[in-house]
Amino acid sequence: MKTNLKFTAMIAFMFTTVVGLAREPKLSLMTQGQSNSLIVELDAKHENAVLKIIDENQNIIFSEKISENSYTRKFDLNELDNGSYYFELDDSLRTLVYPISVENKEVKILKRIENTKPVFRKKGEMLFLNLLNLDSKDVEIKVFDSENRTLYKEVIENESIVTKAFNFKKAHEDRYTVVVRDGKNTYYEDIVVN
């Protein structure tokens, strides 16, 4: 029975991920030969996508919320000092980070880092959590009430797909916060029970 439940949860998570990826924007990030330009192209609309350029001291140099169906922009990085910078695209499903270096007015994209965020889905007084945890890092889940009391705590170890359902049907009227921590990233989701 437990194996069937786990298999069903995995299939549901994979379906949710596929549906989410079908709407996910495709990102192209490229430099123009040996120039000081960075070209960014997004080919699909995605709600709450934010584009940032951050310096090595974590100062945000540029930030823009993306709302067009397709987005193309050429960034002239001519005025940047030599050093390391981070190009970041943050949306509801993931954060993409591209470390870039600027040396003698030449821009180089060093690598691509992708952090998948948990997917929360509310249905009535139920909250469903799905997290793709490819590194199988320990995932800590906590639930707090509005007075910051810990109502639930669990550490899930060595799981590449983390699924959890929280039933608030019999909970007292309050505002609850679910906290998910996977390694160094922490995510929050609130649910209000009336």
List the topology elements.
Elements: H1 2-23, E1 27-31, E2 37-42, E3 49-55, E4 60-66, E5 71-76, E6 83-90, E7 94-103, E8 106-109, E9 113-116, E10 119-123, E11 126-132, E12 139-144, E13 150-156, E14 161-167, E15 174-182, E16 185-193
Antiparallel strand pairs: 1-2, 2-5, 3-4, 3-6, 6-7, 7-8, 7-9, 10-11, 11-14, 12-13, 12-15, 15-16
Describe this structure in words.
The chain folds into 2 domains: 16-115, Sandwich (Immunoglobulin-like); 118-193, Immunoglobulin-like, CATH 2.60.40. The protein is mostly beta strands and 194 residues long. Residues 4-24 have low confidence and may be disordered. It has one helix at 2-23; strands spanning 27-31, 37-42, 49-55, 60-66, 71-76, 83-90, 94-103, 106-109, 113-116, 119-123, 126-132, 139-144, 150-156, 161-167, 174-182, 185-193. Strands 3, 4, 6, 7, 8 and 9 form a 6-stranded antiparallel beta sheet that branches. A 4-stranded antiparallel beta sheet has the order 13-12-15-16, with no helix packed on it. The chain has a 3-stranded antiparallel beta sheet with strand order 1-2-5, with no helix packed on it.
